[in-house]
Amino acid sequence: METIVQYFETIPSSHRSLILVGGIALFWIIESAVPLFAFRSSKWKHAGINIFFTLTTIVVNFVLAFILVWSSDWAVANNFGVLQWLDMPLWATAIVGLMLLDFGGAYLAHWTEHRVPLLWKFHLIHHTDQELDTTSANRHHPGESVIRFVFTTAAVLLFGAPIWLVFLYQSMSVVLSQFNHANITVPKWIDKSLGLIFVTPDMHRVHHHYRLPYTDTNFGNIFSIWDRLFGTYSAVDNRKLVYGVDTHMNQEDHQNIGRMLRIPFESTAKVDHELDQLG
Question: Which pLDDT does position 275 carry in this prediction?
């Protein structure tokens, strides 16, 4: 455990980048071998759009990273936060810390984005993707990247997470998000067993169905416990799902980067009009 702590305390930026790129490459290969569905359009063009938003996410987090590091260092130096107040062995700190950061930085942030109209305007860009695959994981409007960063920083402060735990959490979050967005067929027995602890593709894909109530279920990123605990868990045959978000099903809404960047700043009247047209 000490080796893991030492590694993530000083993990180079190049290694963090390798984790992101390596995860996409790994799940892309698996998708090619055992896809759940066949792409209707160009998989490479689809990936290009999502990689653009992945890059903007990286830029936002890189620019703001010093705030996250400062918050963690301050919490540890001032003995502030849940993890600082609990006397636990290192392995327990890692497990409890990962669960708390996943709750505050992912589940709670995600749930809130679906409840607050202003935040939803930014988050819905992630939902406009109509052909889900591993590249969809980081399809976030730059504004949402800032929103997620605020929640993560608040979680780091509130829970008193040391920097090694923060970087371990972020690395796991990236890989698990790529996994649970992947267009792969997972054997039922594996999905059922793994899903008792972790969010699986079969579980998360339900969240990307284009209509309520399924859009407002399965908010988890790493651990599946939060959706089960707070009653937001839902199971649906993935073969019956239609991806997207019902207010933005036009091709321009999910294929045009400029249009997607503008969507959060458009009036609700325009959205209502589009919804009426959809019927």
Answer: 42
**Token pair belonging to 168:** 């371990």
- Closest by Cα among 244, 255, 253, 257 to 142: 257
Closest of 142, 131, 110 to residue 244, by C-alpha: 131
Closest CA to 99 of 83, 112, 111: 83
What number of other Cβ atoms are within 10 A of residue 32's Cβ? 11
68 half-sphere exposure, CB direction, 13 A CA radius? 23
| Cα dihedral across residues 96, 104, 143, 63: positive or negative | negative
Counting every residue written for the chain, the total comes to 279
Burial class (CB in 10 A: 0-12, 13-18, 19+), 239: exposed
Treating both helix axes as pointing N-terminal to C-terminal, what angle do 43-77 and 163-181 enclose, rounded to 10 degrees? 160
Q: Rounded CA gap, 227 and 233, in Å?
A: 5
Listed by start position, the domains of the chain span 13-278
What pLDDT digit, counting tens, does each position of 212-242 carry?
Answer: 999 999 999 999 999 999 999 999 999 899 9
Half-sphere exposure (Cβ direction) of 70: Cα atoms closer than 13 Å: 4
Q: How far is CA 82 from CA 156, 224, 252, in A?
A: 10, 22, 46
| Rounded Cα–Cα distance for residues 182 and 184 (Å) | 6
> Does the pLDDT of residue 200 top 60, yes or no?
yes
For residue 213, whether the previous peptide bond is cis, meaning omega lies within 30 degrees of 0, is: yes
Q: How confident is the model at residue 74 (pLDDT cuts 50, 70, 90)?
A: very high
